[in-house]
Write a structure and sequence with these properties.
60s Ribosomal Protein L30, Chain: A; 10-stranded mixed beta sheet; single chain; two-stranded antiparallel ribbon; alpha/beta
Length: 357
């Protein structure tokens, strides 16, 4: 893929960290940061408020409120459309969002619709980040609603990749892995006597209709299948239910794994592209079925939290019995309604009335 013809767009804070990292790896990418809070933008090295940042005016975050986010992007649709029109040569728009939050989660559907209206010839990819199963009820609810939003406009989206936050211990580790994997996928091109992948081939693989997957194979394992199995296990991307795909891109180290052994592990319906390099072992699948296992786990986690909430018996007042001899005194301390009314009448009777004109 030609980096100068790609536009990486972050919706919200979590997505901004990934786009910022990709721009740091390769300055040829075009980046655009859309947010509702200036504080989310300030730490980003490659976000320039005068060049590639759009802040919703008069806002200070969404508070993880997807409804508020939907309203904000609709109110700013014309301005965002005008901003996107400044990129007429863009061939692929990659939209990044976290699914559990507010600003990005609530905006992704409308934003994709705006992109297709303003840049109808551009491919639209989505990278959506699922929460870990340790998150709270609101995170799960937002995620499921965002999932449905994305699936409702799947006809407008080409490649979609879902990131699994359960695969690493920290957000930083997840972000670094996503940044490295995506950059390698977009740079899968290579020229070799026994196989070449050019920019057009890479574009075809990375924008195929369906779910996409990037696998990094480790060196030194006993065979290709072991290497692929380990890469699947360690991948931060949500895995498809089956590994059938439309396009398969393979770029392996010279004199390493046999790429033709890799091809035997996947059912490819259109084309397979093979090349070689001196640094990395990368396998990219394009056009897989939409994965469902991870979102079903999120749904189960939400249902479990709802059940526990319904069964909760929250105590607000607990009286400690110190001495049974004081029971008569405690009863005297409690006022009945008549006594309370009389007390209030005594306190307020005779007070002058204040009239405000």
């Amino acid at each position: 893929m030609e980096k100068g013809k790609m536009l990486l767009v972050s919706l919200g804070q979590g997505a901004g960290n990934i786009v910022d990292g990709l721009l740091s790896r390769n300055s040829r990418y075009n980046g655009l940061f859309i947010n509702s809070s200036l504080f989310d933008i300030k730490p980003l090295k490659n976000a320039d408020i005068t060049k590639n940042v759009y802040l919703y005016p008069g806002t200070d975050g969404s508070g993880r409120d997807r409804t508020k986010s939907k309203e904000m992007i609709k109110d700013n649709a014309n301005a965002i459309g005008t901003l996107l029109s400044k990129y007429p040569l863009i061939e692929a728009v990659v939209v990044f969002t976290t699914m559990a939050g507010g600003t990005g989660s609530g905006a992704v559907k409308t934003f994709v619709q705006i992109v297709k209206k303003v840049l109808p010839n551009s491919k639209v990819n989505v990278v959506a980040i699922l929460p870990s199963l340790k998150e709270d009820e609101l995170a799960f609810k937002n995620t499921i609603e965002c999932w449905n939003d994305i699936n409702n406009i799947m006809d407008l989206i080409n490649d979609v990749k879902f990131v699994d936050n359960n695969k690493r211990n920290t957000y930083k580790e997840i972000n670094n892995e996503v940044i490295e994997s995506l950059d390698l996928a977009y740079n899968i091109i290579g020229i070799h006597a026994y196989g070449t992948i050019d920019n057009k081939d890479s574009f075809r693989i990375n924008t195929a209709d369906g779910s996409g997957l990037v696998l990094k194979l480790y060196d030194g394992l006993k065979d290709v299948k072991t290497a692929v199995d380990l890469a699947i296990k360690n991948s931060v991307f949500v895995q498809p239910d089956i590994y059938d795909c439309d396009y398969l891109g393979i770029n392996l180290k010279i004199d390493g794994y046999d790429p033709y052994e890799v091809t035997k592990l996947f059912e490819v319906y259109r084309s397979t592209y093979i090349t070689y390099n001196n640094k990395n072992n990368i396998v990219v699948l394009g056009g897989c079925e939409t994965p469902t296992e991870s979102i079903n786990l999120i749904k189960m986690a939400l249902e479990d939290k709802n059940k526990r909430k319904l069964s909760r018996n929250k105590k607000r007042s607990v009286i400690i019995d110190l001495d049974t001899d004081n029971k008569e005194k405690e009863e005297l301390d409690v006022l009945n309604n008549n006594e309370l009314n009389n007390l209030l009448e005594d306190n307020y009777r005779g007070r002058p009335q204040i009239c405000v004109k």
